[in-house]
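Possible regression after last week's pipeline update?

I re-ran a chain I had predicted before the update to compare outputs. Posting the input and the new output here so someone can diff against the archived version. Not blocking, just want to make sure nothing changed silently.
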Amino acid sequence: MYRDPVESLEPLHHRHAAIRTLRVGMIGIGTVGSGTFRVLARNRADIAARAGRSIELVMVAARNLERAAGIVGDSVALTSDAMQVATHPDVDVVVEVAGGTGPARDWVLAAIAHGKHVVTANKALLAVHGAEIFAAAREKGVIVAYEGAVAVSIPIIKALREGLAANRIEWVAGIINGTTNFILSKMRDEGLDFAAALAQAQALGYAEADPSFDIEGIDAAHKLTLLAANAFGMPLRFADAQVEGITALQGVDVACAEQLGYRIKLLGVARRQAAGVELRVQPVLVPATHLMAQVNGSMNAVMVKSDAAGLTMYYGAGAGSEQTASAVIADLVDVARLDGVHAAQHVPHLGVHAYATNALAVLPRAAVHTSHYLRVPVRAVNQIQAVAASLAEQKVPVRQVALAAERPGTGPQVLVLTGPVEQGTLDLAVHALQARAEVAGAVTTLRVESLEG
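New output (post-update):
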């Protein structure tokens, strides 16, 4: 049914003396891998015209060979040994779409050691092992491309490296996890609590049976790490990112944000400051009139502020088989164009030049300077001024104070929007406020992002 990968793959290709087919080996034939195969086959002529030569899938590693044969037919060599794809002499570029951070690291490093370019959609692999992988790629003079690892259909890596190459990037902020954005949209539109919205996301296939990576903010932090490295030329610093998911978010805060003219989004933010870089993922309030607040369902969006171009925004699907395949194949086109040219002419992978030496510090949580939202349960509606006075005593600028709309089963609640203040100062102020007799329960705080130029 399928070809033996031990055989030479030469008969699968027609070589040209000057420009030959780019031969692709793929590890994994699941959602992304099957989408990549379909799009490569369907748009073969257009892709070849844009790449300057044909791109052909010649070998696939899969756990279930019978299932894989049903997808790719008998024209592609199949193996259950991923390392065979990574090291086969008739493979020019390895596409890793199996996921994970253990075996995938070994496959990618083996491919690089054998002089092969690598395309991956595996953000966890790069966030955790990227420094090692990019250093190895630099030494061997090969490309590691990963557009599909960050924002699926949005070509944000190309935008940062190419479209905005003339710019000094000031900040990058994005909704870069479709699952959490779907959940937050349902909480707002249908008044669901977190658990009910998550259950709906799982029923519709937007969330995995174990959604921890998504709802705890880890997936977004992996992607933000790659965005920050490209934006600021800094090493991959996933371990230093401040990560907060949406599991503790209450429906009352979604409603209170709406009352104040805001919407809550899980936002990844990388912002250059004089003392270092903010690198954080958390639910934040965004003005309801802002474009970012209009990004709903499983869609993603990334906004970039740079010195010459100003504010630019990129929007597209945050999940999907062929949507991710679009990014994977775009990387293959880049490899096809650059394979064989001097390594210095490659679009630089992370880890070269400034990327290896730029030691920008990641700011600690206490030093992050933003505006904030507070929800303060109080014992009586006439205690609104006591809340404002307590915050003022602690040097927290108060921009707006209001009573939350009445809701069944809840007592009076004071809503506060602060001006910009360091997190450390706010933490001390909340601690002092919590101790006051007027306060009837835990104080909830969320950051506020204006996303202005």
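Follow-up from reviewer: compared with the archived run. The two ends are 58 Å apart (CA to CA). Marking as no regression found.
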